[in-house]
Amino acid sequence: MTSLTTPAHATLPADWRDFVALTKPRVMSLVVFTGLCGLLAAPASIHPVLAFAAILCIALGAGAAAALNMWYEADLDALMKRTSNRPLPAGRMDRQSALHFGVALGVFSVLLMGVATNWFAAGVLAASILFYVLIYTVWLKRRTPQNIVIGGAAGAFPPVIGWAAVTGDVTLLPLLLFTLIFLWTPPHFWALSLFVRSDYAAAGVPMLPVVSGARVTRQQIGLYTLPMAATAVAPWPLGLAGPLYGLAAAALSLVFILLSLRVLANRASEPEGMKPEKRLFAFSILYLFAVFGALVLDRWLLA
Amino acid sequence: MMPVDPDEVRRRQKSRAMVMAVLLGTFVVLMFAITIAKMSVNQ
Predict the structure, then answer these.
(1) φ and ψ at residue A9, rounded to 5 degrees
(2) Distance of alpha carbon A224 from its chain centroid, rounded?
(3) SS3 of A151, please?
(4) B37 CA to chain A: closest CA distance, Å?
(5) A243-265 helix and A275-302 helix, angle to the nearest 10 degrees
(6) Distance from CA of B14 to the nearest CA of A (A)
(7) CB neighbours (10 Å) of residue A269?
(8) In whole angstroms, what is the distance from residue A247 CA to residue A166 CA?
(9) In B, which residues are within 8 Å of A49 by CB distance?
């Protein structure tokens, strides 16, 4: 790691709000939602207090991973406009505070998960934090243009953890939910990266549109969308979910595929001409919420 | 080095201590609730 220049006001203790900012609270909503859906879709009941504790642990674990990510990437964040105002690159916090905070929060979330639910769920939570920090942030993000695929795997853990918190094991359905988020992330993120002119190139991160261009990125979006749709519908024919889920997933996936085809047909290279990309990105968020919501409704209405 | 205002340092320390106190209080309540929930599940 390159050392950062020490800002003049480094000895001032960091404001507590900057510790909150370190956990990327806005990213947490999707994590909490998919974790909750995994928990609610599991074929057993859990005490509401323990369910709350499990979701809290998933959120805190994600916050810990985000804090450690910002600790490691402070040099990189300083180079990009979007991230240059984060607590570390802006000099509002010293690096060691961020490291200690991230490690403490991560250990706390795993221990609390073990105490409140079971140690298998705690183990999966620990694995997800380590995966995001070590495999994604430290090892692969700066080395491969498929980095976002690896990052997607890290984001795909919450429903598996939610499920494991209830049942103490992992079966085919949570693995399918994992695969769904894993395959959903690249089209979701690459659509965004096409129309948001980011300065990843300046920071030396090999993002796909920067490395291979818009055409290849659009092809890759289409390439991931097909297995994603198949994974979304799969629980229905496999007998793991009912027709309510199956039909909703099929309809939503069809829209996703149609929108990705319009992206594939688009030739624009400037953000002004990228309406299909913007629509796909907006829909992709709705898609994930709706598919997971449909699974829970299917479980609870048809049970 | 720019001189650090001691009043500002105290103010920061105080607000961080307050947040920590609230979090610890919440933690105590949560552990109590988890204990009760665990006992009711195991009955």
Answers:
(1) -100, 30
(2) 16
(3) helix
(4) 7
(5) 170
(6) 10
(7) 11
(8) 27
(9) 33-34, 36-37
Cβ(A28)–Cβ(A63) below 8 Å: yes
> Which pLDDT tens digit goes with each residue over B2-43?
568 889 999 999 999 999 999 999 999 999 999 999 999 766
A239's tokens: 């007998």
Residues of chain A contacting B33 with CB distance shorter than 8 Å? 49
Cα end-to-end span (Å), chain B: 63
For residues A256 and A287, the answer to whether their CB atoms sit within 8 Å is yes
Asked whether A228 and A259 are in contact (CB, 8 A), the reply is no
CA distance A109 to chain B (A): 12
Task: List the single residue in A with minimal CA-CA distance to B16.
Answer: A16
Mutate to test the interface with A, among B20, B30, B42, B43 (most CBs of A within 10 A): B30
Q: Which amino acid is at A261?
A: L
What does the pLDDT look like over A249-290, one tens digit per residue?
A: 999 999 999 999 999 999 988 888 899 999 999 999 999 999
- DSSP string of chain B? -PPPPHHHHHHHHHHHHHHHHHHHHHHHHHHHHHHHHHHHHH-
DSSP three-state, residue A276: helix
ipTM comes to 0.90
Flag if B41 and A47 touch (Cβ within 8 Å).
yes
